[in-house]
Amino acid sequence: MGLLVVGSLALDSVETPFDKINEALGGSATYISLAASYFSGPVELVGVVGSDFPREYIDLLRRNNIDLEGLQIIEGEKTFRWGGKYHYDLNVRDTLFTELNAFQNFNPIIPERFQKSKFVCLGNIDPLLQIRVLDQLNDPQLVVCDTMNYWIEGMKDDLLKLLRRVNVLIINDSEARLLTNEPNLIKASRLIRKLGPEILILKKGEHGAMLFMDDTIFSAPAYPLETIFDPTGAGDTFAGGFIGYLHKTRDLSSDNLKRAVIYGSSMASFCVEQFSTKALEDLSYLKIQDRFREFKNLSNFDQLEIDK
Amino acid sequence: MGLLVVGSLALDSVETPFDKINEALGGSATYISLAASYFSGPVELVGVVGSDFPREYIDLLRRNNIDLEGLQIIEGEKTFRWGGKYHYDLNVRDTLFTELNAFQNFNPIIPERFQKSKFVCLGNIDPLLQIRVLDQLNDPQLVVCDTMNYWIEGMKDDLLKLLRRVNVLIINDSEARLLTNEPNLIKASRLIRKLGPEILILKKGEHGAMLFMDDTIFSAPAYPLETIFDPTGAGDTFAGGFIGYLHKTRDLSSDNLKRAVIYGSSMASFCVEQFSTKALEDLSYLKIQDRFREFKNLSNFDQLEIDK
Fold it and tell me: Could you give the C-alpha distances from B194 to B27, B183, B212, in angstroms and in order?
């Protein structure tokens, strides 16, 4: 019973107030797979790159227990490239360039061996492609999906079709408001869950994340970091930790979903401490457990019964 | 060992997308005292109103175990009036008018009986007046203080003098960034605590609140409300619940400070459910305990040790 991840692989050039890097490993499928691999492997990756995709990145993914049978390498094409710049306030970023290259005509083909996967994470790509992935699968049990303002604004009908087939939607708070035209996040979450996903996770950056499921609302803090080196990939890493932990434990109770949100948050907190995927390349399970415990200290409290 | 509250009393006219009210009871000292009174009374209030201040509001405060010996009623003057309008997105508000009236020349005089108070809450007023209050006190044990962007921008030197004498500063996240010129809230909190307050609480509206104390960082969620009727006074109500609970328990350990933050958040969540002080007029301790428990469900989780 596999864990399938579909999304982008990219070469990212990122500038922050602290440093800059050129053509580092990036892309939603990359971050999701690397994060998930710490919980449950091999992770089945489906994506596309050009023939210029560095051999060392292929090796890095393989070394991290990621099955690349579904990775298309298009001869003569270049890999998707993205360039971005973060300002001193890291909540704001400018996209400097986007070169889709091989990603432009991406047609996700799910290898037969992957079609029986029960856990699926659809990274942020065209909702029509996300639907095409689901069409090739044989009765998945848990479909987790990400999207972004670009698809909400430009492809809303297709997105709505997709959402009817999704179990967990992971988006950020501004995307939730955009999707529903409702400023109150609690109301917005109720509206979104009527569109299909039984479970909604709202990412709020420095303010943490919220889980909505049945009658449960769970609010997870963000890890308090004084220095965020590179926010790129934090959301994808969250999704990877989240689904990786669920795939490992096979427990979809609300108590376990809460833990999955904390594991996702833990992985995201590591991600932003270094450039690109660096922090996700040699983590240990012990470190992840330690961070999970730090989240517990950060948000748990006890009640003292006092009389009045 | 009393609990002293100094701040404004006002007649508020508030318009929201849901309703509007005219000349309802308002002001920082009002909200702080009412919230604190559910934990620990009598609350000693020091403030000023004009002779037009309605008798029914005096009665309301007295009925809620608030000691008004320090309330100055200026004959022939009018009470401080404030008018504001909230938009559909309740995070944004416009001030329609501010008439300082009797508040213009407020000189806080602490009655002798109140000067021995050990717990003090300085509502958001001119830092020079907040200093003048402290000068009249006989060795307070815990000074909690609020301020706002107006004083940070216009009276920074006086504010810095005040902060050296304050134990707990309660401000919102944008005020913390303004005070330190630092966008990262964790860094900003470290800088602020170097200015004097051992304990800092950052209010983040719909994103909850954070407590910084010794090496402890605690992140409290906001109560998930679908309808916020009137956000006016939420911050003051938070402060009142916080100091009221601490005054009741006389326990300044970090575990108890966390609880105080949750009681403050609980009181604030009630406050915004109705206009003006309505929700704070007939709460029960049972309801407050229930809401505290809801906060526990909202943010606590347990760890499941899994092997890898």
Answer: 30, 17, 12
How distant is the Cα of B55 from the closest Cα of chain A, in angstroms? 29
Name the pTM for this structure: 0.94
Distances (CA, A) of B144 to A134, B6, B199: 56, 11, 9
Q: Which residue of B has its CA nearest to A173?
A: B207
> What sign does the CA torsion over A243, A247, A251, A252 have?
positive
A3-299 falls under which CATH superfamily? Ribokinase (3.40.1190.20)
Q: In sequence order, what are the beta bridge partners of A200? A: A169, A212
Per-residue pLDDT reduced to its tens digit, A171-212: 999 999 999 999 899 999 999 999 999 999 999 999 999 999
Question: Is B193 within 8 Å of B180 (Cβ atoms)?
Answer: no
The whole-angstrom separation of Cα B224 and Cα B3 is 30
Rounded to 5°, the CA angle A186-A232-A18 comes to 120
Confidence class for position A78, pLDDT limits 50, 70, 90: very high
Exposure letters B75-100 (e unless 16+ CB within 10 A, then b): eebbbbbbbbebeeebeebeeeeeee
What residues 137-156 of chain B have any CB closer than 8 A to a CB of chain A? none
**pLDDT recorded at residue B305:** 62
Q: Smallest Cα–Cα separation from B240: which of B263, B209, B207, B214?
A: B263
Q: Do B301 and A300 touch (CB under 8 A)?
A: yes
Q: Does A303 touch chain B (CB under 8 A)?
A: yes
Residue B16, classed as helix, strand or coil, is coil
Are the Cβ atoms of A300 and B304 closer than 8 angstroms? no
B92 at the A interface (CB within 8 A)?
Answer: no
pLDDT at B307 over 60: no
Nearest chain B alpha carbon to A188: B226
How large is the average pLDDT for residues A250-269? 97
Sequence-separated (6 or more) residues with CB below 8 Å from residue B220:
A299, B208, B209, B210, B211, B258, B261, B262, B265, B295, B299
How far is Cα A146 from Cα A169, in angstroms, rounded to an integer?
6
pLDDT tens digits, one per residue of B64-107: 999 999 999 999 999 999 999 998 777 778 999 999 999 999 99
How far the first Cα of chain B sits from its last, in Å, is 55
Close Cβ partners of B107 (under 8 Å, ≥ 6 residues apart): B129, B132
Q: Tell me what ipTM this predicted complex has.
A: 0.91
- Would you state the pLDDT for residue A88? 76
pLDDT tens column, A79-115: 999 999 998 777 778 999 999 999 999 999 999 999 9
Q: What length does chain A have?
A: 308
B contacts of A186 (beta carbons < 8 Å): 224-226
